[in-house]
Sequence to fold (210 residues):
Amino acid sequence: MPVIAIIGNKGGAGKTTLGINLASGLSVRGHTVLLDADPQLSSLQWRQLAVRDDLVAVHDATTETSGIIRQFREITEYVVVDCPPSVNADQTRMALEVCQLALIPVLPSPLDLWATIHVENELIAARSVNRNLKGLIVINQIEPRTRLSHIVGAALSEIELPVANTTISRRMAFRHAMLDGVSIFQMGAQGREAAGEMKSLVEEVINHVQ
Ligand SMILES: Nc1ncnc2c1ncn2[C@@H]1O[C@H](COP(=O)(O)OP(=O)(O)OP(=O)(O)O)[C@@H](O)[C@H]1O
Ligand SMILES: [Mg+2]
Fold:
């Protein structure tokens, strides 16, 4: 069953935030697990502090990452892997060997976008063992009601990886959901816009792994 790895080469781009919320959104469509492959174990901490027990399950996959991914993909509809902030980390390499889709959150700054060239190169290298591996950039933390600048557009045009039509805005609701130990889908009216964006990303991801 499809494995989606959330990867990147920069800290703080939103891998964990998107991982938790993507896995939560996918879990409505089919049984989903979130594997935490980042030694910081932020996703696992979120789940351990969670106040509800109907949230998506999170498992530690910081060691034997590829074996654990293979094990879970046999028994679940979707596997989401939250990777460390380096494409050279063993966990990221292992995730890239077995996933269908690498989702790459990037902040809307030209410097961050240019840095994704390294990510693209790793994806190309990983295709020697994982021929059908796809990559998808998702721009995260756009200021609501702000359009992507023309500089960002120029940086994007230098990268061959496709960019998701959905962009994710910078919204306090994402932070509050983490603090409250829930996903954006349990935030009610306060999380409505953010949940709408995540739903749209969930649809795009499903289309890429079908
Ligand atoms: N769309 C968003 N709106 C508001 N805050 C966000 C959004 N996405 C991420 N954040 C915040 O930005 C910070 C970094 O996000 P996150 O921890 O998800 O990034 P990361 O890529 O997993 O970081 P690391 O590389 O350290 O694992 C966190 O404080 C998170 O709450
Ligand atoms: Mg993280």
User: Anything to note?
Assistant: Helices lie at 15-26, 42-49, 65-75, 90-98, 110-126, 150-157, 172-180, 192-209. The longest helix spans residues 192-209.
